[in-house]
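Researcher: Let's try something more involved. This one mixes different molecule types, so please make sure each is placed in the same coordinate frame as the others.
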Amino acid sequence: MTAEHTLDVLDLHLGYDGPDIVRGLTTAIPPRKVTAIIGANASGKSTLLRGMARLLAPRGGQVLLDGVPVHGMRSVDVARVVGLLPQSPVAPDGITVGDLVARGRYPHQGWFRHWTPQDDLAVGSALAATGTADLVDRHLRDLSGGQRQRVWIAMALAQETDVLLLDEPTTFLDLNFQVEVLDLLTDLNRARGTTVVMVLHDLNLACRYADHVVAMKAGEIVVEGRPGDVIDAAVIADVFDLRCDVLVDPRSGTPMIVPLGRHHAGSRV
Amino acid sequence: MTAVLDPSPPTAHPGAQRVAQQVAQHRRRRARRVLVVGVVLAVAVVAVFVLTMSVGSSGVAPLDVLRSVVAPGSDPRTDFIVRELRLPRALTSLLVGLALGISGTVFQRLLANPLASPDVLGIASGASAAAVAGLVLGNLGGLALSGAALAGALATSALVYLLAWRQGISGYRFILVGIGIGALMGSVTSYLLSKAEVADARAAFAWLVGSSGMAGTAQIQVLAAAVVVLGPLSGLLGRRLTVLELGDDTARGLGLHVERDRRLLMLVSVVLVALATAAAGPIAFVALMAGPLAARLVAGAGSGIVASACVGALIVLVADLLGQHLLPVTLSTGVVTGLIGAPYLVWLLIATNRSGAGG
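Model: All components are placed in one shared frame. Result:
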């Protein structure tokens, strides 16, 4: 395993055209842990991830990789340490799984450098880890949504980075595939010590799978820490504007959010 | 993980070695396909290149053509027919085809849309408008005409880029803006023609149809230099193209300077299409057709730039051969490619509309 990499966000301001979406946010991503960023729509959680991934230049503040501002680093140097799976990646028509995953090797190759056995091994390892080895000759367009997402994760794995950023990797997937993807990321974290940072929609899955949650509202952090320590009904009420009970997940012991709407929420406690 | 005696790196997943062999096989199969297609296309290009110089009012055997091109001197009459009369035209077809094939596929893949070739995006129209302005207003020829076409194409593409820019480039907006600017450039051309002297207008009209036969020596030379330098460069940039076509976010995550690399690839393509237009006029639809045909031949492997260049060259060479010798009437190269390309464009519009990619 390689050196431990740190990813820190310092007084970060991010935005598109209008006012700041992320407003003076400071946090330190715990190395070799799984971090989930949660929050309501438009809370700035995806924007924060995009800022950490250099997809957005900071309006103020910094993102530091091993103490160095990422926006000043050579792009390819960052890409050898930090991998990214965007929210809705696009693939050219007719690309095969093998070709797509191989493109994850780009930051490790030069202008004239030939493909090496090391590259084959990295791609093979990524395919094996994601259970997509049998799909190597298939066209991406012929796969199911769950398979396709696993292939995209395989491409990010082939990049062999110690930090992996994922923007809603489970969105649009059936529940079984959501669990499968999160299991896969947990395997990766445990086997390789990969630092995983992901934006997640599903609170219960976030609480179960994350070592560290960052709950955001209006571009700022409301709470962060171990899910069992920081997630309670008051926090959910604040972050999501939702009344709920927070129970203990009988399987994992992590917080389990049971929403209380106006209907069906009164008879049994 | 027990990594004590494991020869693989610590990141290797159990079973990775076996899968790595599958990956290597897959990669070799793909590379072999690219190589075989490339070699077959290159041989076909050379064959048609020689053939176009072999047929005509006085036929010359293909072997004599080859000898005359490679090692002239044995037969002055053949040398004159081949080298003085036919080589410039064949060379123009070859170079124009290569240039259009490269620039077409680069734009199509950068913008992730088979419609996005430089002729649809208005870049060829910009080169034409500037060249017609040069012909009509300044009586330009030679290098000055190439310079005018280049300036027109660069200005048009910069304008499209700026107008289509909104926190990045989307293929769809780029194409719509390009079509609009292309129409504007077409109007400029028409206006210039309407104001021109009759003789100038006739010359400009003939130029606008597009033909391999009218290139001047200076235009051929500058196009040849561009193809020799920018062809290999675009081949080297091809790997960045294969990353860029995964979308800006993924490409940036993989360590690309997205804007810089995209502009570089576009610049290379614009120069190639401008100099090709200066040499032979706006030869229609070649840039549009070459890339998708080549991609089909190599089954989407690699960047497809070499294959697309060869397909472009084949289209122009065959079109010129047809127009000059094989059809009952003599037609300009651009008319023949238009006859082939127009139905293709109609089919493409219908097909992309059906799949939702064309809008």
